[in-house]
UniProtKB/TrEMBL annotation:
Signal peptide: none annotated. It comes from the Bacteria. InterPro entries: RutC-like_sf, YjgF/YER057c/UK114. This is Enamine deaminase RidA (YjgF/YER057c/UK114 family).
Length: 127
């Protein structure tokens, strides 16, 4: 397995990798709306954009992009956040002929109160 930690995104919070590549599979850890400079935007839309751009950077470490994603798993802290998250996700995959599978769950919170959304991906090298 190969650890994937792009220098263009904030470092992991602890003893884990942002992504792992093993064989044909690439998985990402859940990405939060944390900018590389350590700031966290106030809106779900802006946080989700960061989540997806972080995933894009992790996949790019292996020469992959969103067309390789099998599934996005996402978590938001309120039903009110679902529509804004989904707009961002849909924009990120709008140009794909085959859209990834997607799961969206409502959770009570994350490690820091200001985080509103978290997104993870599973990708297949051969599509």
């Amino acid at each position: 397995m190969k650890s994937l930690n792009p220098e263009t995104i904030a470092a992991p919070f602890g003893g884990y990798s942002h992504g792992l590549a093993g064989g044909e599979i690439v998985v990402t850890s859940g990405q939060l709306g944390l900018s590389a400079d350590g700031t966290v935007p106030n809106t779900v839309k802006e946080q989700a954009e960061i989540c997806f751009e972080n995933i894009r950077a992790i996949l790019a470490c292996e020469g992959l992009d969103f067309s390789h994603v099998l599934r996005f798993n996402a978590y938001v802290t309120s039903r009110e956040h679902m529509a804004d998250y989904m707009k961002v996700r849909d924009a990120m995959v709008a140009d794909l002929d085959v859209k990834p599978a997607s799961t969206l769950m409502i959770v009570s919170g994350f490690t820091r109160e200001e985080f509103l959304v978290e997104v993870e991906a599973t990708a297949l090298r051969s599509t």
